[in-house]
Amino acid sequence: MAVTLEEAPWLGWILVKALMRFAFMVANNVVAISSYVCYVIVLQPLRMLDSKRFWYIEGIMYKWLLGMVASWGWSAGYTVMEWGEDVKAISKDEAVMLVNHQATGDVCTLMMCLQDKGLVVAQMMWLMDHIFKYTNFGIVSLIHGDFFIRQGKSHRDQQLLLLKKHLENNYRSRGRKWVVLFPEGGFLRKRRETSQAFAKKNNLPFLTHVTLPRIGATKIILSALVARQENGSPAGGDAKELDSKSEGLQWIIDTTIAYPKAEPIDIQTWILGYRKPAVTHVHYRLFSIYESGQNMIWRTVISFGSEALSLPTSSTLWSLTMAFARSAFSRVKHSDCHWYSKHTFCFLIKFCWKYDGIMSPKLKKNS
């Protein structure tokens, strides 16, 4: 499409802004991630003496890093409106969050949503595709204890065993409380046709806005982390009391992300900010594991994202947010002070590390 003279200045500004944002994001990654790694190394003695305190401090730094990623979208005008039940009320309980998956921006959207949910981000474990291990944020996720899973039939059984072992070794020992996974196993646009063909062949619901969930990882998480009685059923307790101190998973959070006009925001857009400001909508449903029982738990997992099916005239996932317009409870937006203070802190810390590395040899030489 040809560019008119009137559009040229605007497109030029978009390009310049995108380049400036990209340069800042690169600098931000170099500074923040290296500072995080340096601190983790320096704090290793504390890990030996007081593991609980070490992972608490690491979790706070991890939350700050995710807050920076969230701020990239906010600074470009991408904000979030939350609907449904208030998940902050269960921020101190253990939960598994099931999220629909449309683009790489889904992760960034969750990072923005969960920043104001207490220590949830600090105590969270992510399940993500193994390819993310080789990104700039891979080293951070490895240190934090996130799990990288390989897709495909040839890896399925082995990966589930590795996941079970990973949960046993890292979930409780590091003080984790929430697990986040995308049960669809990939982006909607890539898996929709395969999912629909499988549904037709096996007489399952024909889904348009989500795909049939893959329940292998979810089953491992529930079997490994739900507290059980001697008879194997979920441990009892009053699920309505949100300040419950019992161990084990207590909640399933069915999370649905909906983008304007069903046009997902990917990580490139999040970084470069070349799209117009937009509001992404996120809807939550809470299911108590203690209250629901095993049968209800699996119905919840299998019916994941089924709100879209209840809209007989909907043509896009965006439409589903209108069905919950009366249940909005908050809007997430980071304050200028909050955003700049985190970036300033990391830049100062990086300067201190760099300054110490430059000056120490000179001081030794002069002495």
TrEMBL record:
**Phospholipid/glycerol acyltransferase domain boundaries:** 95-219
Q: Output the SUPFAM superfamilies linked to this UniProt entry.
A: Glycerol-3-phosphate (1)-acyltransferase (SSF69593)
Q: CDD domains annotated for this entry?
A: LPLAT_LCLAT1-like
Span-the-membrane segments of this chain are 20-42, 54-74
Which UniProt keywords are given for this protein, alphabetically ordered?
Membrane, Transmembrane, Transmembrane helix
**Protease: present as a keyword of the record?**
no
As one GO molecular function, the record gives:
acyltransferase activity
- Read off the InterPro entries from this record: Plipid/glycerol_acylTrfase
Its name, as the record gives it, is Lysophosphatidylglycerol acyltransferase 1
Gene designation per UniProt: LPGAT1
